[in-house]
Amino acid sequence: MKKTFQLQIEGKHPERLLEATKHEIRKYLKRDRRRDLPEGADFWDFDCKFGLTEDTAEVVHLANVITCIDTAVANQATQFYVELLAKPGVRTKRPAGEAREHVERHALDGLDDDNND
């Protein structure tokens, strides 16, 4: 998806227009994730760009796209550009130190199965 979204259209309420654009982006992501994966791939990854225009678009993480939209609206932008390109991704194991830190962090939450009192 490569698209410039207008935030101010005559005759349409800006807040409803904003929610419609967010819905369209989420719907696109959901539809692309349902596609069949190529052999050797574990999930669909996305290359994302966001900017007020196509020329000023910068690479952002997928999790930050909606936040970038909210920031643009807060700065009273009249339009923004979003580019989402799907690519197959392969999961990798965490490094040993990072995996240990993850286990230690979640061992303190009281939800481990060893202490079923």
How would you describe this structure to a colleague?
With 117 residues, this protein is an alpha+beta fold. Helix content is 36%, strand content 24%. The protein contains three helices and four strands, in the order βαββαβα. It has a four-stranded antiparallel sheet, covered by helices on one side. The radius of gyration is 20 Å and the shape is elongated.
Question: What can be said about this structure in brief?
Answer:
The chain has 117 residues and is α+β, with helices and mostly antiparallel strands. The protein has helices at residues 14-33, 65-74, 96-107, and strands at 2-6, 43-51, 58-60, 79-89.
Keywords for this entry:
single chain; 117 residues; 4-stranded antiparallel β-sheet; 3 helices
Chart the SSEs and their pairings.
Blueprint: E1 2-6, H1 14-33, E2 43-51, E3 58-60, H2 65-74, E4 79-89, H3 96-107
Antiparallel strand pairs: 1-4, 2-3, 2-4
Low-confidence stretches: none
Strand order within the widest sheet? 1-4-2-3
- Tally of contiguous helical segments: 3
> Which bin fits the share of residues in helices?
25-40%
What is the overall shape?
elongated
User: How many angstroms does the end-to-end distance come to?
Assistant: 52 Å
SSE-based structural type: alpha+beta
Strand content: 15-25%
SSE series: EHEEHEH
